[in-house]
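Ligand: heme C. Inputs:
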Amino acid sequence: MALTVVACGGGGDDSGGGADAAAGEKLFASAVIGTQAGCITCHRWTPDEVIVGPSMAGIADAGDREAGKSAEDYIRESILTPDTYLVEGFPAGTMPQVWGDELSDEQLNQIVAYLLTLK
Ligand code: HEC
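Predicted complex:
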């Protein structure tokens, strides 16, 4: 008898380094993270739902956007230094440049793992 474990989001390429995507999803959806308004204040994950920032739908494919970048590196840099890659139509300096301090390494890895499930 074969037992198959189905990860939410599927795909099987677990590039989040084993970090807990479910914990990342909770964190992403928290109204407050540390001393800051959380990601959910500005981002949704449904396609085309733009509030202050762009929708996170399809962000797992972001590796195609910058030559030589994996989606994981792109997402990590977009969180830690948001102005490195600006999404067209959004001004620099809107996304808080605080996440390197507000998130522990583990929390950052969890959020990245979660975003990598949004194909
Ligand atoms: C105050 C609003 C705000 C908050 C809070 C915020 N962001 Fe952003 N974010 C933006 C804006 C605006 C952009 C688009 C401009 C840019 O690329 O920096 C963006 C861009 C991004 C991008 C790049 C998107 C792409 O398609 O390339 C990622 C990834 C991201 N945010 C993740 C997060 C995560 C994770 C959090 C919570 C830890 C967060 N953001 C919190 C406003 C915000």
